[in-house]
Amino acid sequence: MSPLEQKFEMAMFEIYHRAKSEAKYNATIFYNMLLNRGGVATAKTLINAEQQSQGYTALMLAKRLDLTVEALVVEDVRWLDLFLPEEINKARDRLQANQYAVKMRRSKV
User: Fold this and answer.
1) Which of 45, 61, 65, 66 could form a Cys-Cys staple with 100, CB 3.0–4.6 A?
2) Phi, psi (degrees; rounded to nearest 5) at 76
3) Rounded to an integer, what distance in angstroms lies between the CA atom of residue 74 and that of residue 24?
4) pLDDT tens digit string along 2-31?
5) Nearest alpha-carbon partner for 74 in 50, 59, 90, 54
6) pLDDT tens digits for 32-88?
7) What residues does each domain of the chain span?
8) What superkingdom does the record give (predicted)?
């Protein structure tokens, strides 16, 4: 696993913990996916799914789409090299379809 993939995986665990504490959503399936598949593979699986996940829906209902994998991937340019352009577009489209305004959080160095 590359250093970038390791950082991404840590960010994925961070959104899991934030969803649990801030949105009161216990994402057990997401957590198990992270443990078994790793961060990048989990993100790709969720983004490439034809329908949004149960976790995405729960966070949408809690008005916390900022804690989704989709937001993590598209809002921080550090992660863009880990994903295909099509995957980034799918994540962005899913967020925008739910009236979420995507905002970039970091500049690439």
Assistant:
1) 65
2) -125, 110
3) 23
4) 999 999 999 999 999 999 999 999 999 999
5) 90
6) 999 999 999 999 999 999 999 999 999 999 999 999 999 999 999 999 999 999 999
7) 3-98
8) Bacteria
